[in-house]
Amino acid sequence: MTDPFLGSEALAAGVLTPYELRSRYVALHKDVYVPQGVELTAQLRAKALWLRSRRRGVLAGYSASAFHGAKWIDAD
C-alpha cells in the first residue's frame, strides 16, 4: 500500500490496528496516511489532499494535472 489512505477507514475495516497505523505510517494531513519512507510525488500529494476533503474536493491546475498523471508535471 503506497497510495495515501484514510486512517479511519483502514481502522474501521480492520485492515490495520491503531498500533500498526502509528508505527508504520506517517500522517500527511489529518487522517491521511502513507507508509514511512515513501517518496512524496506531486501525484501522491494531490491524491492526499483530495482524500483530506473526504473525496468531495475539486482539484484544479497543477494538482489536477498531477493527479491525472500529466506527462508535463515533474514527479517531485
Summarize the structure.
The protein has 76 residues and is α+β, with helices and mostly antiparallel strands. It has one domain (5-67). It has helices at 7-13, 18-24, 42-52, 61-67, and strands spanning 5-6, 25-29, 32-35.
Explain this structure:
With 76 residues, this protein is of the alpha+beta class. It has one domain. The protein has four helices and three strands. The protein has a three-stranded antiparallel sheet. β2 (25-29) and β3 (32-35) form a beta hairpin. α3 (42-52) packs across α4 (61-67). The protein is globular, with a radius of gyration of 13 Å.
How far do the termini sit from each other?
19 Å
Largest sheet: 3 strands, antiparallel
Principal-axis shape equals: globular
Question: Ranges with pLDDT <50 over ≥5 residues?
Answer: none
Query: What is the spatial order of strands in the main beta sheet?
Result: 1-3-2
Structural class: alpha+beta
Number of strand elements? 3
Portion of residues within helices: 40-55%
The total number of structural domains is: 1
